[in-house]
Amino acid sequence: MAMQIHQLTYFVTVAEQGSINKAAEKLFVTQPNLSKAISNLENELKVRIFNRTNKGVVLTDDGKKLYQYARTILNQMELIQGLSSKERPRILSIASYPIITMGRLISDFYNAHKQEDISLKLVEQRMQQVIESVESGEAEIGFVMSNNVQAKELKHMLHFKNLVFNPLGEDTWYANIGPNSPLYMQNEVTMAELLQYPIVRLPDDYFSNLTFYLEIDGIRLTEHKKVVYVSDSAAILALLSTTDVFRFGPGLSAPDYARYGIKTIPIRNCNVQIHTGWLQRKRELLSPEAQAFVELLSGLYPAPTTAK
User: Got the DSSP string for 185-241?
Assistant: First the structure.
């Protein structure tokens, strides 16, 4: 089978447009020729990759697998072609769980590379969306944090989507508390004390729903009835700074919150395990920009020094 790059380009464009007509317009080819190219690809592979509907086309299960492989190949081709072209646009695209620390890392990256012509793209998303963004190629790398009740399902999903989890370090939950909270001056808080105040959190997704099974010091997270839902880290920061809400957060963000007068206070008997890491597509080389950013990520959990 002599599959051509242009066949993969046609296929990926149809998949992303959801319509052969729209894809034909974008590719500057005729609709009959594009339809024939897709049919030839299906015949070569001996599988159906699209289901035709009145509204357009939808990927089959085999089509979804092919899309993952094809998107990876085309991304790599862009990097290869860029080797001989000084005009290749340089882009750092990241999908990240909303965390205040990511803003600092982006700033550090910008300051280190501001003389270079690099476009930056950071999107804050829940973990399931981060996975989908990396899988689709919208983001080159993704930053995620999973707890002990999410780990098994995360591993299964990443295997299915041909993604790799690169561990950075382990953490646990703390209570992020601002100066307007009565708990602000405490060195430690209990879950019973936290129940008295609203928790600020992101809208739920599949993975966050699994977290409801977590229990800290005999109290389940479902017992928190006062909840404020927001969709980004800036809103979380504003609420923590000016109200009595709190949030659960990893220890790695403590210095970033401290700049705004927000404390990161230990929770008594908290045995939640947080696994922090970044995602990439399997068997895909990272761009130089992504490699440089991964070096910054690696500094989040410095290796312990050994006494001489």
Answer: T-S-B-HHHHTTSPEEEPPP-HHHHHGGG-EETTEEGGG---EEE-SSHHHHHHHHH
Residue 32 CB burial class (10 angstroms; 0-12, 13-18, ≥19): exposed
Q: Give the per-residue pLDDT at 274.
A: 93
- Write out pLDDT tens, residues 229-273: 988 788 899 999 999 999 999 999 999 999 999 999 999 999 999
Whether the Cβ atoms of residue 221 and residue 211 lie closer than 8 Å to each other: yes
Structure tokens that stand for 271 in this block: 């045995």
Phi, psi of 275 (to 5 degrees): -105, 120
Residue 140 CA to residue 306 CA, distance in Å, equals 35
Cα 229 off chain centre by: 19
Task: Please give the distance of CA 219 from its chain centroid, rounded to a whole number.
Answer: 29
Please state which of the four CATH numbers 3.50.50.60, 1.10.10.10, 1.10.510.10, 1.10.730.10 is assigned to the domain occupying 5-82.
1.10.10.10
- In the three-class reduction of DSSP (H, G, I as helix; E, B as strand; rest coil), residue 101 is classed as helix
Is the pLDDT at 1 greater than 70? The verdict is: no
State how far the Cα of 16 lies from the Cα of 22, in Å rounded to an integer.
Answer: 10
CATH topology of domain 90-167+274-298: D-Maltodextrin-Binding Protein; domain 2 (3.40.190)
* Mean pLDDT across 135-148: 91
